[in-house]
Amino acid sequence: MVPPRRYTAAVSWKVLITASAIGETGQQALERLRQAGCEISLARKFGPLSAGEVQPLLAGMDAVLASLDQYSAAVLGSPEAGRLKIISRWGAGFDAIDLAAATERGIVVTSTPGMLDEAVADYAFALLLALARRVPEEHAAMRGGAWRVAWGDDVSGKTLGILGCGRIGRAVARRAAGFAMRRLGFDCVPTPEAEALGIRRVSLDELLAESDFLSLHAALTPQSRGLIGDPELRKMKPTARLINTARGALVDEAALLRALQEGWIAGAALDVYATEPLPADHPLRAAPNLLLSPHQASFTRETGARVSLAAAQAIVDLIEGRRPAHVLNGEVFQSPHLRVPLAYG
What we know:
Blueprint: E1 14-17, H1 21-25, H2 27-35, E2 39-42, H3 51-54, E3 63-66, H4 73-76, E4 86-89, H5 99-105, E5 108-110, H6 117-133, H7 135-143, E6 159-163, H8 167-177, E7 182-186, H9 192-196, E8 200-201, H10 204-210, E9 213-216, H11 230-235, E10 241-244, H12 253-262, E11 267-270, E12 290-292, H13 301-319
Parallel strand pairs: 1-2, 1-3, 3-4, 4-5, 6-7, 6-9, 7-8, 9-10, 10-11, 11-12
């Protein structure tokens, strides 16, 4: 039997990298791309990049190993994106990519779902613990020469509300079980897996009213944008704390600022923001009882290396004529506009 032929591109592909994680954890990924004959271009400024920032960088590029850059229909239809064959997202989120426009143009879009779950869940729970026990403020006090104690709150036995009971939400629930926490969940789609973990499904109003800690893990959709706003924050306990490691736009940031300034809730921790990077003069930077971090929940070296390699492999698969794993717009392979042929199914 004649073995299937190995498909190779006629010319080497030019690959733009805007994902900052590559610089720290992507040596294997870079080597994998080089072995496939790729010419690599590292963005001078890593993402997330706006549409205006990313569009000129696409000129002459066959592939992007992408951050949360804005790939709008206008960007994908621009002359600069005329050679673009694949956007391989570092991470699971893809709300910044117009999938319909990519499909129409014959551009494959992939992501790396499921590979960030444990790292993000660890970080979400770390933020919860830091808030409850007031770790950041006492660290700052010690740095300033003070010696004092801060009275925090128990975590064990408290109620954890999980908004979004997907893979990461369920991973947080597993951690909460070790603290004997009561676990409530709100999600638009029933999830038997969540119920098997002891998460009781409730309405959003019940979730808000009963949670001592509310951790957000929902996807960003038109329906969920601004889901936690003024009315929702007013329904929370004055002793409750909010943690967001999902998407910044799930929360109305102006409403959260008022809630913290006026004491509607006891505190919050944010790793994600509606605008990233968070502007230096943004009022959230001065908000009371707010713990901030720079969208780093998934940033562990081990996870970074795995995700970087998987994102690079998606590009290599397409170069070699294979359908990559985790394609977000599978219908593109039936499109007459597909920009690269498949040698294998």
